[in-house]
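Bug report (template v2)

What were you trying to do?
Predict the complex of my protein with fe (iii) ion.

What happened?
Run completed; filing so the output is reviewed.

Input:
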Amino acid sequence: MPLQIVTIPCCTDNYAFLLHDAASGETALVDAPEVAPIINALDDLGWSLSQILITHHHHDHIEGVQELRTKYGAKVLGAKADAHRLPPLDIALSEGDMIEVGKSIGRVLDVSGHCDDHLAFYFADSQAVFTADSLMALGCGRLFEGTPLQMWGSLSKIAALPPETIVYSGHEYTIANAIFAYSLEPNNPALRTRIQQTVDARANDIPTVPSTLSDELETNPFLRPASAEIRKNLKMNANTDAEVFAEIRRLKDGFSQTELPDFTK
Ligand code: ZN
Ligand code: FE
């Protein structure tokens, strides 16, 4: 049976997720940006916390781990190679390890690039991948520690999952990402449609996370270095996908436009 997944907005723009296995009653949390909204959600649902899965060491993803572990007696799982920067781990994880939430089995992916030892969790039976600050809705995480080549490898792993996979990423950055995406590929009809959906959702305070991998493949510029339009705009027709990706990431770092142009024309 697939996991029941609940999105919890935290802090200004973070998301945490509850993964509930109804048969066993087990519930896992992916990331703990802030304690109060997570406790409130668990109270409302009548669930306790059995595991806390950490994607990476940044403060806005681990802030609430210790308090939640103490309150619920939850086991904490995170990257073995990054244990020195994480709260104490009950289970230390590496790429390819399997994790269990009740009867649901998740696979650990190393998706470093935003930082070293950034993990994603893929639950095939639930068609769900938890990507935090690697692949994001219409974007990808900034490269604080990794190289563009490393991030391109990480995104390529996620891109190879079944396209119907639902992508649960870590932040509500989608409007800003959309403005950047539009600057690179204004003639992509799927992107225009998605931007309109994003604008409508945010006007009604609806999260744009999760998204589907198929939408990301069609519209997220960081998964589209092969796009003829992007290559033409960047004058990079003869480059490798990894080189085009690196240039897209570099341009995003310096991108300052905050107003969405009229994309309906
Ligand atoms: Zn981060
Ligand atoms: Fe983050």
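What did the reviewer find?
Residues 58, 60-61, 133, 170-171 surround fe (iii) ion (ligand 2) (CB under 6 Å). The longest strand covers residues 4-10.
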